[in-house]
Amino acid sequence: MNRNPLETIMGALVLLVAAVFLVFATTTADLRQVQGYPLHASFTKVGGLSVGGEVRLAGIQVGSVTGQRLDPDTFEAVVDMSVLDSVRLPTDTRAAIASDGLLGGSYIKLIPGSSDDMLEPDAELARTENYQSLEDLVGEIIFLATQPAGGGG
Known about the structure:
- Helix content is 24%, strand content 31%.
- By secondary structure, the chain is of the alpha/beta class.
- A hairpin with a 6-residue loop joins β3 (60-70) and β4 (77-83).
- InterPro entries: Mce/MlaD (IPR003399), MlaD_Phospholipid_Transporter (IPR052336).
């Protein structure tokens, strides 16, 4: 087989660029789970939330989802998460499942309360807001739009 040396050099160059890109992507992306204290929250539905998903406070990642399971008594989804040790949350903190845009994934949004008492490790967040999908929102809009105007019934 008589190969052109230019093809071999170009193939090696493409492999080198791919390797450099892979190293760059793995070093700049923060793909590891946040190590901290565990918390739990129960939801009636979690949407597209997955293990490894982000836990955010004021838009900043402060934790990650470490597990999901179904409570056999209440049939609710229990989400386990890990929050940075440096972030102490009040006991009346709310957890909501939010979407990162139309094509983005889901994440847990923490909304701190005003209590002076702080959550202990392995605590359950008592106040949660369930995931509301785009289909649910469209259904509500259609329902409201089809109601008679001024029907104070």
